[in-house]
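Honest question from a wet-lab person: if I give you the sequences of every part of a complex, can you actually get the arrangement of the whole thing, not just the pieces? Trying it with mine:
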Amino acid sequence: MNFLARIGHVTLGFCTGTGRLTMFTLNAVSHCFRPPIYYKLIGRQFVDIGYYSLPVVGLTAIFIGMVLALQLHTGFSRLTGGESAIAQVVVLGMTRELGPVIAGLMVAGRIGASIAAEVGTMRVTDQIDALSTLSTNPFKYLVAPRLLAGIVALPCLVLVADIIGVFGGFLVASYKFGFNPSAYLQNTADFLQRDDVISGLIKSSVFGFLIALMGCYCGYNSRGGAQGVGAATTYAVVSASVLILMFDYILSALLFSS
Amino acid sequence: MSGEPKIAVRGLKKAFGHKVVLDGLDLDVGVGESVVVIGGSGTGKSVLVKCIMGLMEPDAGSVKIDGREVTGLPRGEREKVMQKFGMLFQGSALFDSLRVWQNVAFGLIQGHGMGQAEAKELALKTLGAVGLGPEVGELWPAELSGGMQKRVALARAIASKPEIIIFDEPTTGLDPIMGDVINNLIVQCVRDLGATAVSITHDIASAHKIADRIAMIHKGKIIWQGAAKAIDQSGNAYVDQFIHGRAEGPIQMEIRAL
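Yes, you can. This is the full assembly:
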Protein backbone atom coordinates (compact mmCIF):
# COMPACT_ATOMS: atom_id res chain seq x y z
CA MET A 1 0.00 0.00 0.00
CA ASN A 2 2.82 2.30 0.92
CA PHE A 3 4.43 1.65 -2.44
CA LEU A 4 1.20 2.47 -4.30
CA ALA A 5 0.80 5.64 -2.26
CA ARG A 6 4.27 6.70 -3.29
CA ILE A 7 3.54 6.11 -6.97
CA GLY A 8 0.36 8.16 -6.62
CA HIS A 9 2.24 10.93 -4.84
CA VAL A 10 4.88 11.14 -7.55
CA THR A 11 2.27 11.09 -10.32
CA LEU A 12 0.22 13.82 -8.66
CA GLY A 13 3.36 15.87 -8.12
CA PHE A 14 4.28 15.54 -11.77
CA CYS A 15 0.78 16.55 -12.90
CA THR A 16 0.69 19.59 -10.58
CA GLY A 17 4.14 20.66 -11.79
CA THR A 18 3.19 20.33 -15.44
CA GLY A 19 -0.08 22.15 -14.90
CA ARG A 20 1.59 24.94 -12.99
CA LEU A 21 4.26 25.38 -15.68
CA THR A 22 1.58 25.43 -18.38
CA MET A 23 -0.44 28.08 -16.57
CA PHE A 24 2.70 30.11 -15.99
CA THR A 25 3.65 29.85 -19.68
CA LEU A 26 0.20 30.88 -20.93
CA ASN A 27 0.06 33.77 -18.50
CA ALA A 28 3.56 34.91 -19.45
CA VAL A 29 2.97 34.65 -23.19
CA SER A 30 -0.31 36.54 -23.00
CA HIS A 31 1.48 39.40 -21.25
CA CYS A 32 4.02 39.58 -24.09
CA PHE A 33 1.29 40.94 -26.37
CA ARG A 34 -0.76 43.11 -24.03
CA PRO A 35 0.24 46.69 -23.27
CA PRO A 36 2.01 48.23 -21.49
CA ILE A 37 5.15 46.79 -23.11
CA TYR A 38 8.41 47.80 -21.48
CA TYR A 39 10.67 48.40 -24.48
CA LYS A 40 13.50 49.70 -22.34
CA LEU A 41 13.57 46.54 -20.24
CA ILE A 42 13.42 44.36 -23.35
CA GLY A 43 16.40 46.29 -24.73
CA ARG A 44 18.38 45.84 -21.54
CA GLN A 45 17.66 42.11 -21.46
CA PHE A 46 18.56 41.81 -25.14
CA VAL A 47 21.97 43.34 -24.50
CA ASP A 48 22.44 41.04 -21.51
CA ILE A 49 21.46 37.87 -23.36
CA GLY A 50 22.75 38.69 -26.82
CA TYR A 51 25.73 40.98 -26.56
CA TYR A 52 27.34 39.74 -23.35
CA SER A 53 27.03 36.09 -24.41
CA LEU A 54 29.00 36.72 -27.60
CA PRO A 55 32.46 35.86 -26.21
CA VAL A 56 31.46 32.55 -24.67
CA VAL A 57 29.31 31.50 -27.63
CA GLY A 58 31.99 32.58 -30.10
CA LEU A 59 34.70 30.65 -28.28
CA THR A 60 32.67 27.45 -28.07
CA ALA A 61 31.58 27.78 -31.70
CA ILE A 62 35.13 28.11 -33.05
CA PHE A 63 36.32 25.06 -31.10
CA ILE A 64 33.31 23.02 -32.12
CA GLY A 65 33.95 23.92 -35.79
CA MET A 66 37.61 23.02 -35.42
CA VAL A 67 37.05 19.71 -33.71
CA LEU A 68 34.34 18.85 -36.20
CA ALA A 69 36.78 19.26 -39.10
CA LEU A 70 39.39 17.28 -37.18
CA GLN A 71 37.10 14.38 -36.43
CA LEU A 72 35.61 14.34 -39.92
CA HIS A 73 39.06 14.23 -41.43
CA THR A 74 40.08 11.18 -39.42
CA GLY A 75 36.69 9.55 -39.98
CA PHE A 76 36.37 10.31 -43.68
CA SER A 77 39.94 9.28 -44.45
CA ARG A 78 38.73 5.71 -44.09
CA LEU A 79 36.43 6.25 -47.07
CA THR A 80 37.85 6.74 -50.51
CA GLY A 81 37.27 10.32 -51.60
CA GLY A 82 35.34 11.08 -48.43
CA GLU A 83 37.67 13.86 -47.37
CA SER A 84 36.27 16.26 -49.90
CA ALA A 85 32.96 16.25 -48.02
CA ILE A 86 34.42 17.92 -44.91
CA ALA A 87 33.39 21.44 -45.96
CA GLN A 88 29.83 20.36 -46.63
CA VAL A 89 29.41 18.40 -43.42
CA VAL A 90 30.91 21.17 -41.29
CA VAL A 91 28.60 23.83 -42.68
CA LEU A 92 25.56 21.59 -42.51
CA GLY A 93 26.35 20.42 -38.99
CA MET A 94 27.00 23.91 -37.70
CA THR A 95 23.97 25.66 -39.18
CA ARG A 96 21.40 22.95 -38.68
CA GLU A 97 22.46 21.41 -35.42
CA LEU A 98 25.56 22.41 -33.53
CA GLY A 99 25.23 26.19 -33.79
CA PRO A 100 21.76 26.34 -32.22
CA VAL A 101 22.34 23.58 -29.67
CA ILE A 102 25.76 24.73 -28.48
CA ALA A 103 24.69 28.37 -28.28
CA GLY A 104 21.47 27.27 -26.55
CA LEU A 105 23.31 25.22 -23.94
CA MET A 106 25.90 27.92 -23.27
CA VAL A 107 23.23 30.58 -22.90
CA ALA A 108 21.18 28.25 -20.69
CA GLY A 109 24.15 28.08 -18.35
CA ARG A 110 24.86 31.79 -18.46
CA ILE A 111 21.47 33.44 -18.75
CA GLY A 112 19.13 30.76 -17.42
CA ALA A 113 21.11 30.78 -14.18
CA SER A 114 21.27 34.55 -13.91
CA ILE A 115 17.55 35.01 -14.60
CA ALA A 116 16.62 32.35 -12.03
CA ALA A 117 18.96 33.83 -9.43
CA GLU A 118 17.77 37.40 -10.00
CA VAL A 119 14.05 36.62 -10.07
CA GLY A 120 14.47 34.13 -7.22
CA THR A 121 16.20 36.70 -5.02
CA MET A 122 13.45 39.18 -5.84
CA ARG A 123 10.92 36.57 -4.74
CA VAL A 124 12.54 35.70 -1.41
CA THR A 125 13.18 39.36 -0.52
CA ASP A 126 9.51 40.26 -1.25
CA GLN A 127 10.45 42.46 -4.22
CA ILE A 128 7.94 40.62 -6.43
CA ASP A 129 5.17 41.28 -3.91
CA ALA A 130 6.37 44.88 -3.74
CA LEU A 131 5.90 45.15 -7.51
CA SER A 132 2.29 44.06 -7.11
CA THR A 133 1.66 46.57 -4.33
CA LEU A 134 2.99 49.31 -6.63
CA SER A 135 0.36 48.42 -9.25
CA THR A 136 2.83 46.67 -11.54
CA ASN A 137 2.21 43.18 -12.83
CA PRO A 138 5.35 41.09 -12.20
CA PHE A 139 4.62 39.04 -15.32
CA LYS A 140 4.64 42.14 -17.44
CA TYR A 141 7.61 43.77 -15.75
CA LEU A 142 9.87 40.76 -15.12
CA VAL A 143 8.83 37.79 -17.23
CA ALA A 144 7.60 39.19 -20.57
CA PRO A 145 10.72 41.32 -21.32
CA ARG A 146 13.00 38.36 -20.66
CA LEU A 147 10.96 36.02 -22.86
CA LEU A 148 10.85 38.49 -25.75
CA ALA A 149 14.56 39.26 -25.45
CA GLY A 150 15.36 35.52 -25.37
CA ILE A 151 13.29 34.84 -28.48
CA VAL A 152 15.05 37.59 -30.45
CA ALA A 153 18.58 37.39 -29.02
CA LEU A 154 19.28 33.69 -29.51
CA PRO A 155 18.89 33.64 -33.32
CA CYS A 156 21.25 36.63 -33.55
CA LEU A 157 23.80 34.78 -31.43
CA VAL A 158 23.38 31.61 -33.47
CA LEU A 159 23.96 33.48 -36.72
CA VAL A 160 27.31 34.64 -35.34
CA ALA A 161 28.05 31.16 -33.97
CA ASP A 162 27.34 29.61 -37.39
CA ILE A 163 29.82 31.89 -39.10
CA ILE A 164 32.51 31.44 -36.45
CA GLY A 165 32.00 27.65 -36.40
CA VAL A 166 32.39 27.36 -40.16
CA PHE A 167 35.47 29.54 -39.89
CA GLY A 168 36.88 27.17 -37.25
CA GLY A 169 36.40 24.23 -39.60
CA PHE A 170 37.98 26.23 -42.39
CA LEU A 171 41.06 27.00 -40.27
CA VAL A 172 41.72 23.37 -39.42
CA ALA A 173 41.01 22.09 -42.92
CA SER A 174 43.17 24.60 -44.71
CA TYR A 175 46.08 24.99 -42.26
CA LYS A 176 46.30 21.54 -40.70
CA PHE A 177 45.22 19.31 -43.57
CA GLY A 178 46.34 21.54 -46.46
CA PHE A 179 42.99 21.93 -48.21
CA ASN A 180 42.85 24.64 -50.84
CA PRO A 181 41.27 27.56 -48.92
CA SER A 182 39.34 29.04 -51.80
CA ALA A 183 38.07 25.63 -52.92
CA TYR A 184 36.95 24.91 -49.33
CA LEU A 185 35.01 28.17 -49.12
CA GLN A 186 33.56 27.63 -52.57
CA ASN A 187 32.39 24.15 -51.54
CA THR A 188 30.81 25.58 -48.41
CA ALA A 189 29.01 28.35 -50.24
CA ASP A 190 27.78 26.10 -53.04
CA PHE A 191 26.45 23.49 -50.69
CA LEU A 192 24.71 25.72 -48.15
CA GLN A 193 21.00 26.32 -48.63
CA ARG A 194 18.92 29.07 -47.13
CA ASP A 195 16.69 26.56 -45.33
CA ASP A 196 19.65 25.10 -43.43
CA VAL A 197 20.29 28.44 -41.77
CA ILE A 198 16.63 29.33 -41.28
CA SER A 199 15.77 26.02 -39.63
CA GLY A 200 18.64 26.60 -37.20
CA LEU A 201 17.39 30.09 -36.43
CA ILE A 202 13.84 28.87 -35.81
CA LYS A 203 15.18 26.26 -33.41
CA SER A 204 17.30 28.80 -31.58
CA SER A 205 14.35 31.11 -31.17
CA VAL A 206 12.49 28.33 -29.41
CA PHE A 207 15.57 27.61 -27.30
CA GLY A 208 15.76 31.26 -26.28
CA PHE A 209 12.13 31.13 -25.19
CA LEU A 210 12.73 27.95 -23.19
CA ILE A 211 15.80 29.34 -21.43
CA ALA A 212 14.07 32.56 -20.36
CA LEU A 213 10.90 30.70 -19.44
CA MET A 214 12.59 28.15 -17.20
CA GLY A 215 14.75 30.85 -15.59
CA CYS A 216 11.69 32.95 -14.79
CA TYR A 217 9.52 30.01 -13.74
CA CYS A 218 12.07 28.54 -11.35
CA GLY A 219 12.99 31.94 -9.94
CA TYR A 220 9.38 33.03 -9.59
CA ASN A 221 8.49 29.92 -7.60
CA SER A 222 11.59 29.76 -5.44
CA ARG A 223 11.08 29.54 -1.70
CA GLY A 224 13.12 29.76 1.43
CA GLY A 225 16.13 32.04 1.23
CA ALA A 226 19.56 31.42 -0.21
CA GLN A 227 19.14 27.67 -0.45
CA GLY A 228 15.87 28.03 -2.34
CA VAL A 229 17.44 30.42 -4.82
CA GLY A 230 20.36 28.02 -5.30
CA ALA A 231 18.00 25.14 -5.97
CA ALA A 232 15.97 27.28 -8.37
CA THR A 233 19.11 28.21 -10.29
CA THR A 234 20.22 24.60 -10.64
CA TYR A 235 16.76 23.49 -11.67
CA ALA A 236 16.48 26.29 -14.23
CA VAL A 237 19.74 25.36 -15.95
CA VAL A 238 19.14 21.61 -15.88
CA SER A 239 15.54 21.78 -17.08
CA ALA A 240 16.36 24.33 -19.79
CA SER A 241 19.23 22.14 -21.04
CA VAL A 242 17.10 19.01 -21.13
CA LEU A 243 14.22 20.85 -22.81
CA ILE A 244 16.60 22.28 -25.42
CA LEU A 245 17.79 18.80 -26.42
CA MET A 246 14.23 17.46 -26.36
CA PHE A 247 12.85 20.25 -28.51
CA ASP A 248 15.88 19.97 -30.76
CA TYR A 249 14.78 16.51 -31.74
CA ILE A 250 11.11 17.44 -32.03
CA LEU A 251 11.81 20.52 -34.13
CA SER A 252 14.32 18.66 -36.34
CA ALA A 253 11.74 15.97 -36.96
CA LEU A 254 9.14 18.59 -37.84
CA LEU A 255 11.34 20.89 -39.91
CA PHE A 256 13.14 18.22 -41.91
CA SER A 257 10.33 15.71 -42.24
CA SER A 258 9.41 16.75 -45.79
CA MET B 1 -15.82 53.86 14.76
CA SER B 2 -18.62 55.34 12.71
CA GLY B 3 -20.13 54.34 9.39
CA GLU B 4 -18.77 51.67 7.14
CA PRO B 5 -15.35 50.26 8.03
CA LYS B 6 -12.53 50.82 5.53
CA ILE B 7 -11.46 47.20 5.86
CA ALA B 8 -13.81 44.46 7.04
CA VAL B 9 -12.44 40.96 7.43
CA ARG B 10 -14.87 38.14 8.18
CA GLY B 11 -14.23 34.46 8.88
CA LEU B 12 -10.88 34.47 7.12
CA LYS B 13 -9.33 31.02 6.81
CA LYS B 14 -6.03 29.97 5.37
CA ALA B 15 -4.12 26.73 5.76
CA PHE B 16 -0.87 25.50 4.28
CA GLY B 17 -1.19 21.76 3.96
CA HIS B 18 -2.25 20.55 7.41
CA LYS B 19 -1.04 23.69 9.16
CA VAL B 20 -3.97 26.02 9.84
CA VAL B 21 -2.68 29.59 9.96
CA LEU B 22 -5.87 31.67 9.95
CA ASP B 23 -8.90 30.06 11.54
CA GLY B 24 -11.97 32.20 10.96
CA LEU B 25 -10.47 35.59 11.74
CA ASP B 26 -12.65 38.74 12.04
CA LEU B 27 -11.26 42.29 12.05
CA ASP B 28 -12.65 45.73 11.28
CA VAL B 29 -10.57 48.81 10.60
CA GLY B 30 -12.33 52.16 10.52
CA VAL B 31 -11.61 55.00 8.12
CA GLY B 32 -8.48 56.88 9.23
CA GLU B 33 -7.88 54.47 12.08
CA SER B 34 -4.53 52.94 12.93
CA VAL B 35 -4.82 49.32 14.04
CA VAL B 36 -1.83 47.33 15.20
CA VAL B 37 -2.02 43.55 15.15
CA ILE B 38 0.31 41.96 17.68
CA GLY B 39 1.13 38.32 18.12
CA GLY B 40 4.00 35.89 18.32
CA SER B 41 6.06 34.67 15.40
CA GLY B 42 4.22 32.27 13.15
CA THR B 43 0.73 33.18 14.38
CA GLY B 44 -0.41 34.32 10.95
CA LYS B 45 0.13 38.08 11.10
CA SER B 46 1.89 38.26 7.74
CA VAL B 47 -0.61 35.92 6.13
CA LEU B 48 -3.43 38.17 7.38
CA VAL B 49 -2.05 41.31 5.73
CA LYS B 50 -1.18 39.39 2.57
CA CYS B 51 -4.79 38.21 2.37
CA ILE B 52 -6.07 41.75 2.95
CA MET B 53 -3.85 43.07 0.18
CA GLY B 54 -4.65 40.23 -2.19
CA LEU B 55 -1.08 38.97 -2.43
CA MET B 56 -2.51 35.68 -1.20
CA GLU B 57 -5.95 34.14 -1.77
CA PRO B 58 -7.65 32.97 1.46
CA ASP B 59 -9.24 29.51 1.56
CA ALA B 60 -12.49 30.92 2.92
CA GLY B 61 -13.94 34.11 4.34
CA SER B 62 -14.36 37.60 3.03
CA VAL B 63 -12.32 40.78 2.83
CA LYS B 64 -14.17 43.98 2.06
CA ILE B 65 -12.44 47.23 1.20
CA ASP B 66 -14.79 50.25 1.32
CA GLY B 67 -17.68 47.80 1.49
CA ARG B 68 -16.63 45.97 -1.66
CA GLU B 69 -15.72 42.30 -1.66
CA VAL B 70 -12.16 41.88 -2.95
CA THR B 71 -11.45 38.18 -2.54
CA GLY B 72 -11.53 36.31 -5.83
CA LEU B 73 -11.39 39.47 -7.94
CA PRO B 74 -9.90 39.05 -11.41
CA ARG B 75 -6.38 40.34 -11.84
CA GLY B 76 -7.28 43.59 -13.61
CA GLU B 77 -9.84 44.61 -10.98
CA ARG B 78 -7.42 43.61 -8.26
CA GLU B 79 -4.79 45.97 -9.64
CA LYS B 80 -7.23 48.86 -9.35
CA VAL B 81 -7.93 48.01 -5.71
CA MET B 82 -4.19 47.70 -5.15
CA GLN B 83 -3.78 51.37 -6.04
CA LYS B 84 -5.45 52.23 -2.74
CA PHE B 85 -2.69 50.43 -0.86
CA GLY B 86 0.85 51.21 0.14
CA MET B 87 2.97 48.65 1.93
CA LEU B 88 6.14 48.81 3.99
CA PHE B 89 7.71 45.37 3.83
CA GLN B 90 9.57 43.77 6.68
CA GLY B 91 12.83 43.51 4.76
CA SER B 92 12.15 46.82 2.98
CA ALA B 93 12.03 44.94 -0.39
CA LEU B 94 13.64 47.80 -2.30
CA PHE B 95 14.36 47.07 -5.97
CA ASP B 96 18.13 46.71 -5.95
CA SER B 97 18.45 47.24 -9.70
CA LEU B 98 17.04 50.77 -9.36
CA ARG B 99 18.37 53.90 -7.70
CA VAL B 100 16.75 55.14 -4.51
CA TRP B 101 14.71 57.87 -6.19
CA GLN B 102 13.56 55.42 -8.88
CA ASN B 103 12.37 53.11 -6.12
CA VAL B 104 10.35 55.88 -4.52
CA ALA B 105 9.00 57.05 -7.88
CA PHE B 106 8.20 53.52 -9.08
CA GLY B 107 4.53 53.49 -8.14
CA LEU B 108 4.04 57.01 -9.49
CA ILE B 109 5.57 56.19 -12.88
CA GLN B 110 4.26 52.64 -13.36
CA GLY B 111 0.98 52.75 -11.48
CA HIS B 112 -0.12 56.33 -12.05
CA GLY B 113 1.60 57.04 -15.37
CA MET B 114 3.41 60.13 -14.14
CA GLY B 115 6.28 61.59 -16.20
CA GLN B 116 9.91 60.93 -15.12
CA ALA B 117 10.81 64.51 -14.19
CA GLU B 118 7.65 65.16 -12.21
CA ALA B 119 7.90 61.79 -10.46
CA LYS B 120 11.53 62.43 -9.54
CA GLU B 121 10.67 65.79 -8.03
CA LEU B 122 7.88 64.25 -5.97
CA ALA B 123 10.13 61.32 -4.98
CA LEU B 124 12.82 63.68 -3.67
CA LYS B 125 10.17 65.64 -1.78
CA THR B 126 8.89 62.41 -0.21
CA LEU B 127 12.45 61.42 0.69
CA GLY B 128 12.74 64.79 2.42
CA ALA B 129 9.61 64.00 4.42
CA VAL B 130 11.31 60.91 5.86
CA GLY B 131 14.46 62.87 6.65
CA LEU B 132 16.64 61.91 3.70
CA GLY B 133 18.38 64.51 1.55
CA PRO B 134 18.26 64.63 -2.26
CA GLU B 135 21.81 63.22 -2.47
CA VAL B 136 20.48 59.90 -1.12
CA GLY B 137 18.19 59.69 -4.14
CA GLU B 138 21.11 58.97 -6.45
CA LEU B 139 22.47 56.08 -4.35
CA TRP B 140 21.69 52.39 -4.80
CA PRO B 141 19.67 50.58 -2.11
CA ALA B 142 22.64 48.32 -1.29
CA GLU B 143 24.66 51.39 -0.27
CA LEU B 144 22.22 52.32 2.51
CA SER B 145 22.12 51.22 6.15
CA GLY B 146 19.14 49.21 7.43
CA GLY B 147 17.48 52.25 8.98
CA MET B 148 17.88 54.31 5.82
CA GLN B 149 16.49 51.45 3.73
CA LYS B 150 13.43 51.35 5.99
CA ARG B 151 12.93 55.08 5.53
CA VAL B 152 13.25 54.77 1.75
CA ALA B 153 10.75 51.92 1.83
CA LEU B 154 8.42 54.11 3.89
CA ALA B 155 8.83 56.91 1.34
CA ARG B 156 8.01 54.44 -1.45
CA ALA B 157 4.91 53.23 0.38
CA ILE B 158 3.53 56.75 0.90
CA ALA B 159 4.70 58.40 -2.34
CA SER B 160 1.51 57.72 -4.27
CA LYS B 161 -0.62 58.90 -1.32
CA PRO B 162 -2.42 55.62 -0.65
CA GLU B 163 -5.68 55.43 1.31
CA ILE B 164 -4.53 52.37 3.23
CA ILE B 165 -0.97 51.72 4.38
CA ILE B 166 0.22 48.36 5.65
CA PHE B 167 3.30 48.20 7.86
CA ASP B 168 4.85 44.76 8.22
CA GLU B 169 7.16 44.71 11.26
CA PRO B 170 8.34 48.29 10.70
CA THR B 171 10.89 48.34 13.53
CA THR B 172 12.26 44.79 13.42
CA GLY B 173 16.02 44.68 13.06
CA LEU B 174 16.59 48.33 13.92
CA ASP B 175 18.26 49.82 16.98
CA PRO B 176 15.82 51.31 19.54
CA ILE B 177 16.50 54.90 18.54
CA MET B 178 16.08 54.27 14.83
CA GLY B 179 13.00 52.20 15.68
CA ASP B 180 11.52 55.22 17.42
CA VAL B 181 12.45 57.48 14.49
CA ILE B 182 10.53 55.13 12.19
CA ASN B 183 7.59 55.04 14.61
CA ASN B 184 7.42 58.84 14.66
CA LEU B 185 7.62 58.97 10.88
CA ILE B 186 4.82 56.44 10.58
CA VAL B 187 2.57 58.39 12.95
CA GLN B 188 3.32 61.63 11.13
CA CYS B 189 2.89 60.22 7.62
CA VAL B 190 -0.36 58.46 8.44
CA ARG B 191 -1.71 61.63 10.04
CA ASP B 192 -0.61 63.88 7.18
CA LEU B 193 -2.15 61.60 4.57
CA GLY B 194 -5.24 60.91 6.64
CA ALA B 195 -4.70 57.27 5.71
CA THR B 196 -5.99 54.11 7.33
CA ALA B 197 -3.14 52.03 8.72
CA VAL B 198 -2.76 48.37 9.58
CA SER B 199 0.52 47.39 11.19
CA ILE B 200 1.78 44.07 12.39
CA THR B 201 4.51 43.90 14.96
CA HIS B 202 5.70 42.12 18.05
CA ASP B 203 7.36 45.28 19.31
CA ILE B 204 5.11 46.54 22.12
CA ALA B 205 6.75 49.97 22.34
CA SER B 206 6.12 50.44 18.65
CA ALA B 207 2.52 49.25 18.99
CA HIS B 208 1.88 51.75 21.81
CA LYS B 209 3.21 54.57 19.72
CA ILE B 210 1.46 54.01 16.39
CA ALA B 211 -1.81 52.35 17.36
CA ASP B 212 -5.26 53.79 17.98
CA ARG B 213 -6.39 50.26 18.60
CA ILE B 214 -4.50 47.04 19.22
CA ALA B 215 -5.65 43.55 18.31
CA MET B 216 -3.91 40.41 19.42
CA ILE B 217 -3.83 37.36 17.15
CA HIS B 218 -3.31 33.88 18.52
CA LYS B 219 -3.82 30.54 16.78
CA GLY B 220 -5.38 32.22 13.76
CA LYS B 221 -7.99 34.25 15.62
CA ILE B 222 -8.21 37.71 17.16
CA ILE B 223 -8.39 36.92 20.87
CA TRP B 224 -8.46 40.46 22.22
CA GLN B 225 -8.84 43.95 20.86
CA GLY B 226 -9.15 47.35 22.45
CA ALA B 227 -7.81 50.88 22.62
CA ALA B 228 -4.03 51.11 22.68
CA LYS B 229 -4.12 52.71 26.14
CA ALA B 230 -6.22 49.87 27.52
CA ILE B 231 -3.78 47.12 26.69
CA ASP B 232 -2.01 47.26 30.05
CA GLN B 233 -5.33 46.62 31.80
CA SER B 234 -6.68 44.13 29.28
CA GLY B 235 -7.41 41.50 31.91
CA ASN B 236 -6.52 38.91 29.27
CA ALA B 237 -3.90 36.41 30.35
CA TYR B 238 -2.61 35.89 26.78
CA VAL B 239 -2.19 39.63 26.21
CA ASP B 240 -0.53 40.11 29.59
CA GLN B 241 1.94 37.34 28.89
CA PHE B 242 2.73 38.77 25.47
CA ILE B 243 3.23 42.41 26.45
CA HIS B 244 5.39 41.49 29.39
CA GLY B 245 7.34 38.94 27.37
CA ARG B 246 7.07 36.02 29.79
CA ALA B 247 7.84 32.45 28.83
CA GLU B 248 5.36 31.23 31.45
CA GLY B 249 1.65 31.63 30.81
CA PRO B 250 -1.20 30.35 28.69
CA ILE B 251 0.83 30.62 25.47
CA GLN B 252 3.18 27.67 25.55
CA MET B 253 6.03 27.07 23.13
CA GLU B 254 6.28 23.40 22.45
CA ILE B 255 9.78 22.52 23.50
CA ARG B 256 10.98 18.99 23.77
CA ALA B 257 13.83 18.03 26.05
CA LEU B 258 17.14 17.17 24.45
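Two things worth pointing out. The two ends of chain B are 50 Å apart (CA to CA). DSSP finds eight helices and ten strands in chain B.
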